Amino acid sequence: MSIMVSMPILPAPVAPAPHQPQSCADLFWSFTWLALQGFGGVLAVVQRELVEKKQWLTREQFVEEWAVAQIMPGPNVVNLSLMIGGRYFGLRGALSALAGMLAAPLVVVLLLVLLYAQFAQVPAVQGALRGMGAVAAGLIAATGLKLMGALNKHPLGLWACAALGLTCFVLVALLRLPLAWVLPALGVLACTLTWLRLKP
């Protein structure tokens, strides 16, 4: 009689990223350029620059680090810049990435505020801003669909992760429940299910 032994299903190991920043100056200028592109659709820009162009992160690493950045207090992309800078160069790297993320955009935003105060009531300006909002939403949706493939390596699998994401959308966007309640509840549920899946 043969005895079947149940083994836990472990996720495939995540391969390291092929490249990394060369210096703190490289971090600073890279995040400065990234930030200057990121008006409204920063998720799409971050994913394209860090994963596809510079290859500092694999797609799976990006999904994991972006998830951590989202649950930490503060702007997601600022949290991500601190994490990436700290990963490669410690505190110096984190501060360099943060400075790149904030310095030039701060100047640009202050100039835009002055211009907006002068032209906010112009119908063409109002229409342009509404149009940019629609474009930003499309960029974020497209990037989310592009990153879904990385969930195939998650212990829960693509469909369970998609179900959790859909549940979050329904609770927050349709039922108007506070994100401060939904995120911890679904986060604990997802962590528990993952732990049970990986449990020997």
Structure, described:
By secondary structure, this protein is mainly α. The chain has 2 domains: 18-118, no CATH class; 153-200, no CATH class. It has 7 helices and no strands. The chain has helices spanning 24-37, 42-53, 59-71, 76-119, 123-147, 157-174, 179-198. It is globular, with a radius of gyration of 20 Å. Mean pLDDT is 81; it is low at 1-12.
Query: Using DSSP, what is the number of strands?
Result: 0
How many domains would you count in the coordinates?
A: 2
Q: Tell me which oligomeric state these chains represent.
A: single chain
Overall geometry: globular
Distance between the termini: 24 Å
Tally the helices: 7
Percentage of residues assigned to helices: over 70%
How big is the Rg? 20 Å
Q: What is the gist of this entry?
A:
This protein is mostly helical.
Attribute tags:
200 residues, 7 helices, 73% helix, disordered N terminus
Give the topology, please.
Blueprint: H1 24-37, H2 42-53, H3 59-71, H4 76-119, H5 123-147, H6 157-174, H7 179-198
Helix pairs in contact: 1-4, 2-5, 3-4, 6-7
